[in-house]
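Sample intake sheet
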Amino acid sequence: MTTAATTSTDNPGVLVWPPLFYLSALVLMVILRALAPLPIFAVAAAWPALLLVVAGVALLATGRRTMTAAGTNVNPTRPATTIVSSGPFRFTRNPLYVGVTLIFTGLTLAFNTWWGFILLVPVLVTMHFGVVLREERYLERKFGEPYRQYRSRVRRYF
């Protein structure tokens, strides 16, 4: 892990706060489903839905715990204090975002509506350009070569 000093303006300047953004999309999915169901299957896919939600919660919780143990901020609007490269960060640079996307996908299957997948497209585009790429530029500015080395070893998402 690499550490660096922080200032009050020290943050990636993300466009959206990811938990609220995904929650808003989930609420919109439920509303749209009530108005026009657009079912995916004749019967909801309970087991695949449950597996995706459980996998997403596990990845999200493990990633959060790893960040907290490393002493850095989980909230992307706050300064990063270190490059976390242990736990799930050995396999993906964004385990929290991958985890919440798995949860959202599982809930889409559980609610059995195409609306979740329709909404997931703009959510993922916004997350990629408005959060992830901003975080990457910020981390490269802040940590330099150690971050570039980490980025070259670990995939962005999967």
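Comment: DSSP finds five helices and no strands in the chain. Residues 1-7 have pLDDT under 50 and may be disordered.
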